[in-house]
Design goal:
mainly alpha; 6 helices
């Protein structure tokens, strides 16, 4: 029987993953309907998502500090908080890059990447829903594998679009701007994989 006023850390992980998805959805919408005149306004919305995610992470940490016996190791909870938060931060960094480098138009390949990030974050939510009952779940390993495959797809996409960029563009500033942008997009996929790798490690330790 659950203790009175007990805190559900697994629900906390789901909330953090939902913030990452919200950030990914916003990024995808911005890139698909890019308007440099509204970019600063969109950045504020993105930062609000990132800030809300930070507050949720702080709340989980605060609860953990008072917890006598957490459901999984404290270090694992802290690592997961940081890794999920890193996803949201990486997504916000993409938008900051677009603003700092005064990007006027979005390349189609960037939208391919934002779609991959969105898919990864959607799967991340489903993974954490399964993680809530990981000892009985029959789907969590498939969810983890799917995110691993999306990350691999991101690696392949990054390799091909950076090559394409150098093949089709002579402008040195454009090459630098988009090489960095693609790298930041790829890091978002990496961050999703890092989060589920920790989930997988926790499952192994507690099985």
């Amino acid at each position: 029987m659950a203790r009175k006023n007990s805190f559900d850390y697994f629900d906390g992980f789901i909330k953090l993953a939902e913030y990452s998805y919200d950030a990914a959805k916003l990024l995808d919408d911005i890139l698909k309907n890019f308007d440099v005149d509204t970019l600063q306004e969109k950045m504020k919305i993105m930062h609000e998502i990132e800030h809300a995610a930070d507050l949720e992470g702080h709340e989980i940490t605060r609860r953990l500090a008072k917890e006598f016996i957490p459901p999984i190791e404290r270090e694992d909870i802290i690592m997961l908080i940081h890794e999920i938060d890193d996803i949201t931060d990486c997504i916000e960094d993409v938008l900051l890059h677009m603003y700092m480098y005064n990007v006027k138009e979005i390349r189609v390949d960037a939208i391919k990447f934002s779609n991959l990030i969105l898919l990864s974050c959607k799967e991340l939510i489903e993974t954490f829903k399964e993680f809530k009952n990981f000892k009985k779940s029959k789907e969590i390993h498939n969810k983890i594998i799917k995110i691993n495959r999306l990350e691999e797809e991101g690696d392949n996409l990054y390799t091909e679009i950076v090559r394409k960029l150098h093949e089709t563009t002579n402008n040195a500033i454009d090459i630098m701007t988009w090489t960095i942008a693609y790298n930041r997009l790829e890091k978002c996929c990496d961050a999703c994989e890092e989060a589920v790798n920790i989930v997988e490690s926790i499952i192994m330790k507690n099985s």
